[in-house]
Amino acid sequence: MSDSPESSPARTSSAGVAAYDDPVYRPAVIDLLGVLAYGELTAFERLADDATLAPTLEDKAELAALAVTEFHHYERLRDRLRDLGVEPVSAMRPFQAALDTFHRHTAPADWLEGLVKAYVGDGIATDFYREVAAYVDADTRALVLEVLENTGHAVFVVDRVRKAIAEEPRIGGRLALWGRRLVGEALSQAQRVAAERDVLTALLVGGVDRPGMDLAAIGRMFARLTEKHAQRMATLGLQA
Fold first, then answer.
1. C-alpha to C-alpha distance for 164 and 97, rounded to whole angstroms
2. What is the pLDDT of residue 211?
3. By three-state DSSP, how is residue 81 classified?
4. Residue 209 phi/psi, 5° resolution?
5. Which are the contacts of 93, defined by CB distance < 8 A and separation ≥ 6?
């Protein structure tokens, strides 16, 4: 069975409605939407903060626009949770400690570290949740992919980081070390969430009537995540 997010078994909308009767599936989807909602809310806060460090007015305006986009993504997830009869704050709260700890441990020292974090750190999480989205119903998958869509971070960050390295090459070494630290912290955070929220893990491993990944497929998934991280670092002109 192919285990890439594009080719994994996917439910139809009608099957998704039936899946909500599953006592494991429903809380798993709520957890997925909850962690994404809190991630989007904190992304809005971080980009707004980064905008205050922007060296030019143009950069400040670009980051402010990206922050607004992230908040709109949060609103979409919030509204979906309410449609499911779930209070958004309750769905987000289980993930607050883990995500807040990650952001405390990866507080950027300057503007450039903030940009790399937005691109590399968030990119790892985005890739993981895209993998998970292959195992949810069609409506939920469409929403997840919508809010994970590139908001313009890539072009903006790559341009600014590459220009900075071209002007001062020694910056590249520092930012490469920063990128490696972000990977370690992101994986630790993901392991903590997985350990504390078994229902999220259940989405990947599946159930009797819900195909999922075996151990080999999970290994290949993490290999894909590592490869995509290395590609992002190379795109920035940094050693992974």
1. 34
2. 63
3. helix
4. -110, 15
5. 34
Model-wide pTM > 0.90: no
As a whole number of angstroms, the distance between CA 167 and CA 163 comes to 6
Q: 144: buried, middle or exposed (CB in 10 Å: 19+, 13-18, 0-12)?
A: buried
**Which parts of the chain sit beneath pLDDT 50?**
1-2, 4-15, 208
- Number of other CB atoms surrounding residue 61 within 10 Å: 12
**3-state DSSP assignment of residue 11:** coil
Q: Write the single-letter amino acid at 166.
A: A
**CB atoms closer than 10 angstroms to residue 85:** 7
Q: Look at residue 134 and give its three-state secondary structure.
A: coil
| Rounded Cα gap, residues 55 and 60, in angstroms | 8
CB of 103 closer than 8 Å to CB of 185: no
Q: Tell me if 200 sits within 8 A of 28, measured CB to CB.
A: yes
SS3 state at 210 = strand
C-alpha to C-alpha distance for 145 and 27, rounded to whole angstroms? 19
Q: Any idea what DSSP says for residue 212?
A: -
| Rounded distance between C-alpha atoms, residue 183 and residue 65, angstroms | 26
